[in-house]
Specification:
By secondary structure, this protein is mostly helical. The protein has one domain (35-138, 165-226). The protein has helices at 3-34, 37-55, 62-71, 76-105, 109-118, 120-126, 130-135, 140-160, 167-192, 202-226. The longest helix is centred in the first third of the chain and has 32 residues, at 3-34.
């Protein structure tokens, strides 16, 4: 066990998390101060609603993908392509279901629009490759993605949100932050492993789902309890 590498990864990841959270905190405080209470509440409600759908991606859980890849798989390329392909496919399906659900059951027009816009982050979560870098013990790309996306988010908030009428811009900025984070990490992934092919190995998927469903269900129950 390489303790030096472990200490380095802990330091890099912790630093990235702390810096990212601080930047996000200032952005959130600024947005909350500018927007009307009802608009800020509608944005938060939309984010919670989308979170329920995002959790369903956990049926191909990134923690399980990390574990499987770290202990070694027979065909790593096949494994990586299967995880990426299925998570992206599920995310697209979830976004379509979200749109149908929101248009059918959500009466508040602001929440409806915010949920559809922020729902795009479900797709970006589908190609978020943090599981690969965690398995390879390469935490620097993850931290870089967190910090850059949070910094761009903060700068965008200060530049484009000037009064309470900018609530539509706010939800787009929040959404693009999530998408940017995934894109940055995907770029690092392509640099490391340029081969990406849409393919799904049924045996790999079956094994991942069998290990993931209990984690996804637990996360869903926790979110329900937290959102009460």
């Amino acid at each position: 066990m390489n303790f030096r590498l472990i200490r380095k990864n802990i330091l890099v990841f912790t630093t990235g998390e702390i810096v990212s959270r601080i930047l996000n905190f200032f952005a959130l405080v600024y947005v909350a101060r500018i927007l009307l209470v009802e608009d800020f509440g509608a944005i938060n409600l939309a984010i919670v609603l989308v979170s329920y759908f995002t959790i369903l991606l956990g049926f191909i859980h990134d923690d399980i993908a990390t574990k499987e890849l770290s202990i070694g798989v027979a065909d790593e390329i096949d494994f990586r392509n299967s995880v990426l392909s299925l998570r992206l496919l599920i995310s697209l399906l979830l976004y379509v279901i979200l749109i149908i659900f929101v248009l059918s059951y959500v009466n508040n027009n602001s929440v409806r629009i915010f949920a559809i816009v922020y729902g795009l982050s479900i797709i970006s979560t589908g190609f978020y490759t943090n599981w690969f870098f965690r398995a390879k013990e390469k935490f620097l790309p993850i931290s870089i993605g967190l910090v850059i996306s949070s910094l761009v988010n903060l700068i965008s908030v200060f530049l484009f949100i000037n009064n309470f009428t900018d609530f539509n811009i706010a939800i787009w900025i929040i959404t693009l932050k999530e998408i940017l984070n995934s894109i940055i990490l995907l770029i690092f992934y392509l640099i490391k492993k340029p081969t990406i092919k849409f393919s799904i190995n049924v045996n790999i998927v079956k094994r991942l789902i069998q290990q993931s469903y209990s984690l996804a269900f637990s996360a869903f129950l926790l979110l329900m309890n937290f959102s009460k």
